[in-house]
């Protein structure tokens, strides 16, 4: 499902305009990004939990050449799906 398809589906289900739904989704991504950057977790009830985690620097190997490369440390976003949603999809 693309973003536009998601917006259309939510707009139809909630009886709202596509512009309103689009604005809410844009705001949601900004609010979630700020929360994760500050170290907070974001729980979307019935969907899952977003959290940030630090990955340490490490060495990796280029599979085509076999050369060792350095992978720098970075912060990544993790997502854990809600149990109810996982059971519904399974």
Automatic annotation (TrEMBL):
SUPFAM superfamilies recorded: IHF-like DNA-binding proteins
Domain of life: Bacteria
GO biological process per UniProt: chromosome condensation
Name of a matching Pfam family: Bac_DNA_binding
Cellular-component GO terms for this entry: cytosol
UniProt-listed SMART domains: BHL
Keyword annotations from UniProtKB, A to Z: DNA condensation, DNA-binding
Gene Ontology terms, MF aspect: DNA binding; structural constituent of chromatin
Keyword DNA-binding: yes
Family, similarity comment: Belongs to the bacterial histone-like protein family.
Protein name per Swiss-Prot or TrEMBL: DNA-binding protein HU-beta
Natural source organism: Bosea lathyri
């Amino acid at each position: 499902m693309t973003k536009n398809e998601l917006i259309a589906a939510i707009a139809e289900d909630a009886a709202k305009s596509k512009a309103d739904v689009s604005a809410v989704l844009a705001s949601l991504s900004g609010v979630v990004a700020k929360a994760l950057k500050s170290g907070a977790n974001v729980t979307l009830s019935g969907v899952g939990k977003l959290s940030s985690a630090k990955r340490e620097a490490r060495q990796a190997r280029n599979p085509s050449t076999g050369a060792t490369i350095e992978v720098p440390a970075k912060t990544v976003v993790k997502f854990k799906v809600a149990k109810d949603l996982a059971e519904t999809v399974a």
